[in-house]
Amino acid sequence: MIRVGTCGFCEARSKYFRDFDAVEVQQTFYRILQEKTLERWRREAPEGFTFSMKAFQGVTHPPNSPTWRRSNVRPSKNVGLLRPTSEVLHFWRVTLKEAEVLGARFILIQLPKSFKESEESFANAEKFFEMAERKDFEVAVELRAGARKVSSASSGSLTL
Question: Per the domain annotation, does 153 fall within a domain?
Fold first, then answer.
């Protein structure tokens, strides 16, 4: 089955829900959203609508990333880059909770350009995916330019 949507709501949600049958929610990357907001979006969406969402940047982006300027969270030095720290795992649990409330099917982990191809990065990612609960969500990993292509992590392993 093919679903058609955009990254973010490109028009009023009521119109979007008539025009498309899927969306990748970007807001969950920048901010931790209130449950009532996610519940409202789920209620407003028609039956069969597919939500995917980006994991919160605390999982992926280090504290010096400019993306944190848009956040409602002040980052510690131990966030980002799939490092298996208590902070990163906390933000992953926050992401899972948001995905449950939203009724999302997919979670996208968008890694920054600063995620470098190195043994340390790959070891951190492997450990993160060993420790991170996935529940029933499909998880995709996106690397930015300069890094190797990563396939879906939904099988429980990370292919780099």
Answer: no
CATH number at residue 95: 3.20.20.410
pLDDT digit string (tens) for 106-136? 999 999 999 998 999 999 999 999 999 999 9
CB atoms within 10 A of CB 78: 14
For the entire predicted model, the pTM comes to 0.88
Domain count, the chain: 1
Asked if residue 136 belongs to a domain, the reply is yes
Report yes or no: 145 and 155 within 8 Å, Cβ to Cβ: no
SS (H, E, C) the chain: CCCCEEECCCCCHHHHHHHCCEEEECHHHHCCCCHHHHHHHHHHCCCCCEEEEECCHHHHCCCCCHHHHHCCCCCCCCCCCCCCCHHHHHHHHHHHHHHHHHCCCEEEEECCCCCCCCHHHHHHHHHHHHHCCCCCCEEEEECCCCCCCCCCCCCCCCCC
Give residue 107's domain range: 5-142
Give the tens place of pLDDT for each residue, 4-33: 999 999 999 999 999 999 999 999 999 999
